[in-house]
Amino acid sequence: MYFLTGWPRRLLCPLRSEEEPFYIQPSSQRFYFALLSETQLSVWFSRPSVLIVSYIESAKAAAQFGFYQKAEWKPDDSMIAVATAKGYILLFDVLGGGDDKYLYEPVYPKGSPRVKVTPGFKEEQCAPALSLEMKKPVDLEAPITSLQSLQEDLLVCTADGYLHVLHWDGLGSNGRKAICLTTIPFSLDLQSARGGPSLDLEGVHIRCMEYCVTLDGFAVVLSDGRLGFITPLSNTITADQLQGVWAADVTDGTCVAVNNKYRLMAFGCASGSVLVYMIDTTTGSMQLSHKLELTPKHYPDIYNKTGPVKLICWSPDCSVVMVTWECGGLSLWSVFGAHLICTLGEDFIHRSDGTKKDPLKISSMSWGAEGYHLWVLPHKQERRRQEEQDVEMVAPPNSSALQAGILQFHFIKSALTVNPCTSNQEQVLLHGEDRLYLTCGDPTQIHSNSDTHPHTHLHPRDGSPLHPPPNPDSSLSQGLSTLLGHKHWHVVQIHSTYLESNWPIRFAAIDTAGQCMAVAGRRGFAHYSLFTRKWKLFGNITQEQNMTVTGGLAWWNDFVVVACYNFIDQQEQLRLYQRSSNLDNAFASVTKLHSDTLLLNVFRDMVILFRADCSICLYSIERKNDSPNPTASVELLQEVSMSRYIPHPALVVSVTLTSVRTETGITLKAPQQACMAESIMLNLAGQLIMLQRDRSGPQVREKDTAAVNKKLLPFCPPVVLAQCVENVWTTCRSNKKKRHLLEALWLSCGEAGMKVWLPLFPRDHRKPHSFLSRRIMLPFHINIYPLAVLFEDALVLGATNETVLYDGMQGSSEPLEALFPYCTVERTSQIYLHHILRQLLVRNLGEQALMLAQSCASLPYFPHVMELMVHVVLEEEATSREPIPDPLLPTVAKFITEFPLFLQTIVHCARKTEYALWNYLFAAVGNPKDLFEECLMAQDLDTAASYLIILQNMEVPAVSRQHATLLFNTALEQGKWDLCRHMIRFLKAIGSGEMETPPPTPTTQEPSSTGGFEFFRNRSISLSQSADSVTAGKFNLQKTFSMPSGSSAKGRDVECAENMYIDMMLWRHARHLLEQVRLRDLGCFSAQLGFELIGWLCRERNRVARVDDFVLALKKLHKDFLWPFPVIPVGNLSSPLKNGRCRTGE
Hints:
By secondary structure, the protein is an alpha+beta fold. It has a domain at about 1065-1120. About 20% of the residues lie in helices and about 30% in strands. The chain contains 24 helices and 58 strands. Strands 1, 30, 31, 32, 33, 34 and 35 form a seven-stranded antiparallel β-sheet that branches. Strands 6, 7, 8, 11 and 12 form a five-stranded antiparallel β-sheet that branches. α8 packs across α10 (about 860-880), α10 runs antiparallel to α11 and α12 packs across α15 (about 940-955). The longest helix is centred in the C-terminal third of the chain and has 27 residues, at about 1050-1075. The chain is elongated and about 130 Å long. The termini are far apart.
């Protein structure tokens, strides 16, 4: 979602002062930032991050008003209100310097095409010259605790329990209105407001307050620590029109921040936790949604020592929240509680030598434009101590003034936060303020035909296009080698010319093939091709500056679909631009819209728009090649009003058109409807709503209706599918072999993990049971934050923050930002299939689990999926402190037996598990001796060798010797020489008596092709030679057998007996080979195992080495070595009859 990158940047104020800034407040668009020190008000610009103007209070005025404490901007950025310590409100007019006055201007080289531009263009890339002018102050006669700006009013809370409503334009006595807090009735909910329990607010005032637009009310923290929400019952704020509700059982509130998009209120507490509340729409009460707190599992040293929560800041797109505490540190959570970053652990609090650092204490912080930066003001004492060290080095000795410092933390975020279109859901696309991060493959491998065939598969090594699969839709999915081939990002720098005038980037989109990107800033847009490595910008700068993207942008084949506002016509439009054509309105397909567009998405050949009037519009797109430049025709298909169900249009997070439906494909009356637009998924403030097409009426066959006159079916009333939803993934592709995965709906739910709405199909097209629902919602947890779902590959892609410690300047002069490690963003992925299979087995849906697993059996990591499922269930059940009434492990074991990799799965899982859990495991899956014998019967000797390690730990040495002998003889017969060498060492270890004591748990992770006996390589067994040295010569093994290594007589006797036992097995196998006249195999046997063949043949010359049937032995010898039999030439044949006749003729 949001990821920290690099080191923080330090901004120094050019004006030296004894005062340090302690409060920062952004303007409505976050282009300006107001900074307060005791007697100074400064305004900074966002890009470039420079100081524009600073107002310094005179000593006389400072003595009258008191020090500055808080500030608030007017929504149109024309005024700043400052609260002082002695109860005054100081209002400052922010005045512009005129059209031709700029504080900073860009300097272009001679001949640059960016010099001569249209009027107004220059303003976008210059820091304006502003001035501050103070108006008449307002004395509220009490300490001010909170400021809140509304459209025309300024709300001020004072410590005497009053809420003052001041007009921005008339701050004199006529514009002032005061409301006493005790006159506002508070109750637990609005239904019991007239007769229920009420709060006694005598002597209580509002400590912190923030207005929520979508809830139309104020979230407040009272001075006694209680939490509340005040709702105006009418459009005007008066004492008799305010009603409050309070949260029960909370008395330690410290601060509050509201989330307008999700209608959430985050309250900080003295305990260090953040309580996130929502308002119940039926009763009006405050309900706890979730908590944000550090867990002892991940932060055992600090989780209960953070102190009270000091500040809470939601990002501009409302998708993440930043929290800091009194003891310092920063922590980032997603909107529903997925923990992303924390600076109170790992490399953030440790130096490279292992010593601990004190966390950075923060006095104020604010997000920058679009959430790319976090502006942080360090605590005064820390900054003063640090800057004094810097001044000693660089300032003159007589200078005691200090430079104020601001820290800027840099973030990159997922494109899903503001532009959740379908193509962005199948690729991981992150964007910072000036660059894009992609997970697609190397663009140099893209063939030259990629422009004409944008979805052609490319081989990751040779770069040549492969033949497309029979199903054209399946070509939209990238291969695993492309998405998981490496962990590096492909970074694309956004064109600097576009950024100069259109920063910040607001929307970004990538096409389904992952080869084309488009970005949109304040005005216009630009797109990039990985194949050409070039950006395309508007050739006419006027066209770029006359449009702004409002509802996002998406890709449809090789067209960019844009929902924008045209400033010339003053109208909302839907535009399609062809990728290969010049970026010009002359080549665009323009459709006029009747209302502002908030969201845009694409499904197959359809565009879905969500508009500001709470309506949804469906458009069809058709490509036309009737001109040299291809165009697209857009036609309105359907319009659906949602005003009854959506209280505020800003609450809609995403809108998606899907083929998901509650019926399975078998029950549909028309099979071709499986891939049609069947439903609309709407994320309404975290509540996922589904609108499905109403098929209850008479169905008309598609062939009976002309395509032009075909009318789309209406939608049923909405149904709530899930709560606390952050992201939704679905696909328009179809695959009969993987219907479960492709027809499912995937949800990301913050701290609750992920959920999948899985379809259930009857097996072998049988009639479904009446009690079996057609879909089921399955929750599961993953260890990464999901950014993309690979449906066919059963993988979740994501990203995570990693840190790198550097040895900076040691000593007192270490800069403040160097206290942080260097942050990088790594690509991650995780398998989720074992979670789903387990959930199905828990719900007695084993048949569905079997169908799903069989459809994924061809995946390269499917064996690992089986191991994970066994391992997770085993760990939970075997380590449970309480008895489990219905254990799942036997069911999982029975499920795995349906697959040929059952034996390997069990032994691999056992060898990765603690020895103490083996008894529980094999009590469920079967006796390891029986499993060993099954491996021998299946001729799977490598897996059988792995079971020997299990037996050696669970059985007495005699049993291990018996099974090892069986495996040794089988390996000799099949010529598995590596395994034979390990078996010799294994038997030697048993004979030495080492295994009489309980052995340690094996620690190897994966058995190799040699049977997994590398476990014995590093053990102190009595073999004096390694397996590699055994093969060096034929005398090595003989030497090992004949030389005892024990120090006692008993040890030597055991050693000699074991040597004799192994020798007898080798002699027996050699006799077997010689009896069958398999001299070639005998030679290999001798060479591989160092068998003393000459001496043994001498001893056996009168026994098995004696040849009784020379003819049979000779034939087998020729056959064994593929030698031809001797043939007599034709000329050497003598015929007495022929010779006689010749003599007769003479």
